[in-house]
Amino acid sequence: MNSIAPLHTPMKQFPVSNGELFVGGIPLRQLAARVGRTPFYAYDRALVSRRVEELRSALPTRLKLHYAIKANPMPALVAHMAALIDGVDVASAGELKIALDAGVAPRDISFAGPGKSDNELRQAVAAGILVNIESFREIPPLAASAKELGVPARVAVRVNPDFELKSAGMKMGGGPKPFGVDAAKIPELLRAIAEAGLAFEGFHLFSGSQNLRAGAIAEALRKSFTLITELAADAPVPLKVINLGGGFGIPYFPGEQSLDLTPLGTALTSIVEEAAKAFPQAEIVIELGRYLVGEAGLYVSRIVDRKVSNGEVFLVIDGGLHQHLAASGNFGQVLRKNFPAAIGNRMHALKAEAVTIVGPLCTPLDVLAERMVMARGEPGDLVVIFQSGAYGATASPQAFLGHPPVVEVLV
Ligand SMILES: *Cc1c(COP(=O)(O)O)cnc(C)c1O
Question: Which pLDDT value is given to residue 168?
């Protein structure tokens, strides 16, 4: 019963001085005072920039790097990212607005997702962005908007591949899927696109998310490229874009290690070289969300209470699952596992104890760490949850139990 949770690999991206974490060069308690209240999310812009630089140096220079906004759509962060990357992928008209407001050029924005509404498709055509078609149903409204507005409807085809991404946290391609169009139906889809007069530009494939096995991702990228090469035989015009997806993961749980970029660099270099011959006009794109921003973010809460119940220590914090669903284990996890967490103002404390950290919500689901060993925390101390830069604030049911919305800062 009272077993201790297994340990995480240490989180080293944020410096520690005098036992206190620094975010964007600011000591955590000072940052909390600056923000003015807890809980909050803090994203470190230098860490985001560094991550993009590291990726660029590991991957071929001609490869285009896109940011998938749904991982973290905070406008200031998207604006910061816009200066670092080659394009942005949006999954709704709301995200499209954020990308355009951030100054991303329409030619560098693509729009994927099932169930795009007719109005969203019309907005996309009016904006001049690339729509990744996921269904035959999207063709008539796209054609109608292009005609009405007198501008081309730029489209790519999202393919549901005939293989799955091995060991992905979330599989989004292969077998029966709501995403994309089955590879077998692509020739027919391409004919319908040509007949409707849409401006076809290429292919998009995204087979899954949160994968930590570089070999499996490299294999999926290779298979995706091979499949697109086959499908391109039916394309009405030379390809301008080949978007191979991504799915690069970050370590969240005990035993997980950072992704090894070397095999990905090797695989992508050979793909980019082959594409230069077979599709000389095409840009090769990967689109990443979590990998670009996840490790640069912290969720910071204050300890409200310290309780002991039948021998077990509970730290009750002012943050919870309503603001960080993923850390509570209720966002796609099968078995609840702890995110890395610490007392951010007691990083060097000698006295450690196993604690369970719970949020303020009146539900047994509101657990953010279970029997984790950390410094002894007292009311007023700041609990940090690492790896919180992606799928945090906007992927959580913030209205649940009526607490105020979480603050987000880019530091
Ligand atoms: C969610 C999503 C992404 C981003 O996935 P990450 O795992 O955050 O990198 C990229 N492309 C598409 C089509 C998506 O749906």
Answer: 65
